[in-house]
Amino acid sequence: MEYITVRQWGQAEFVEKKSRFIGTCQPVKTEKEALEFIAQMKGSYWDASHNVYAYILREGGIQRFSDDGEPQGTAGIPVIDTLKKAGVTDAVVVATRYFGGILLGGGGLIRAYSHTASIALGAAEKVRMAECVLGEIACGYDSYGRVQPLVGECGGEVDDTVFLEAVTVKFHMEPEGVEELRRRLADATAGKGILTEKGKEFFPLAVEPEA
What pTM did the predictor assign? Predict the structure, then answer.
């Protein structure tokens, strides 16, 4: 089953009515990792007015957020709602605010924290994680030049190539591409190339652009 998460640590910021908002996003797998990241951000921005956070995890279906002193419902909820609307899981966002002396009001805070979470997600880059087949193709040196391109043409990605007595091409691809690859491999090698499935693992793939 596929899911959407973020590729990497990402950070972005903006200023709204003299208040500085810093959004930081990080991929995480467990609640322990999420809490450690939140503690790290609070340590880095110990002098901030607020360090609001939210995270959603596949493990246990956990969803947590905190307003960190902002009026109830104006900070943590907009951040977690932004994660939900983006379909993102296994990620944590910390929205840091340095108060600039001008009150934003409830609606202003909601918009500001939603925007902070949104730009943090943009900096961290959404990715689609799909369960892919891990495979290996064994072939002769004489057919390697024909075999290696087939993986990409069938929607997969080559992870490694080992050159010993024979050539072994290690790859991953979504399951629906395997049979096509198997057929094309047989044609390219006159049936001599051998494709072996070695298991399954999640890999990041491109997120389809939003309409």
Answer: 0.78
